[in-house]
Amino acid sequence: MSRRDMVVTGATGINGGSVPTTDEVVRVSAVSRSFGRGAHAVHAVRDVSFSANRGELVAVRGRSGAGKTTLLNMVGGLDRPDSGQVVVAGHEVTSAGEAELLRLRRGTVGFVFQTFGLVPILSAAENVGVPLRLAQVPAAEREQRVAVLLELVGLGGHAAQRPYELSGGQQQRVAVARALANEPDLLIADEPTGQLDSETGRSIMDLLRAVVHARGMTALVATHDPALIDLADRVLVLRDGRLVDG
Ligand SMILES: Nc1ncnc2c1ncn2[C@@H]1O[C@H](COP(=O)(O)OP(=O)(O)O)[C@@H](O)[C@H]1O
Ligand SMILES: [Mg+2]
């Protein structure tokens, strides 16, 4: 079965259910990243190691400036560490060339950002379809998959609306659907509820949790919202770039 066939499947997971839920999807080993040099250097992430398994939603908590975004960007291949190693779904992210990083960002990892990042002139359906276009999924199949994804995030009736015609929570749901379009092994969400009121934020977090558990995916979610932390399976706490205990 190809990855493409997997889009509407439920709890069977990316590899058709043959992989146990304890499977390691993310392994971060002794990763460090600094910005600037000498006395002015900012040590954004210092010697961080952790792993995350299939079916697990891991929250990354820490106040502003703690290094959450820097860490997530390195896991997703948007940035490279100065030292250490990142492996995602068997791909060595840290040593990957540009072509491999592009494949990783398009197929293995899905991203959700605080500011939604939707294309304003495209409808909800067209936004969700962007990754499928990039993957050259034929139009008929694309439309069908987009419809399933919009239904999944509770926006079946909103396919034709543009982002400005949707509430913040609805826009983030579109962004979640887009991030799921290519059946990623790993969903990375950087403060996905940061621009939403607490009730809407909670519903987005509920959605992420349901998707992760139903599909046997893995999610890394940065947040400094304590109310959302209890929805995570596990919490990593960053302080001044280091992982600390609870
Ligand atoms: N591109 C950059 N250039 C310089 N400093 C940066 C850069 N990105 C992040 N930093 C610094 O690294 C630290 C961690 O930032 P960040 O990872 O964005 O934290 P968080 O997401 O937890 O708020 C902060 O001190 C921030 O100012
Ligand atoms: Mg951040």
Question: What would you say this structure looks like, in words?
Answer:
The strands form two sheets. The chain has a six-stranded mixed beta sheet, sandwiched between helices. A four-stranded antiparallel beta sheet has the order 2-1-4-5, covered by helices on one side. It has a domain at 57-78 and 97-244: P-loop containing nucleotide triphosphate hydrolases (Rossmann fold, 3-Layer(aba) Sandwich), CATH 3.40.50. By secondary structure, it is an alpha/beta fold. The chain has seven helices and ten strands. Helix 3 crosses helix 4 (139-152), helix 3 (124-134) packs parallel to helix 5 and helix 5 packs parallel to helix 6. The longest helix is centred in the C-terminal third of the chain and has 18 residues, at 198-215. The radius of gyration is 17 Å and the shape is globular. Helices cover 32% and strands 26% of the residues. It has helices at residues 68-75, 98-108, 124-134, 139-152, 168-180, 198-215, 226-229; strands at 24-35, 42-53, 56-61, 83-88, 91-92, 109-113, 186-190, 218-223, 234-239, 242-244. Helix 6 links the parallel strand 7 and strand 8. Mean pLDDT is 89; it is low at 1-21. The N and C termini lie far apart (41 Å). Magnesium ion binds at residues 68-69, 190-191.
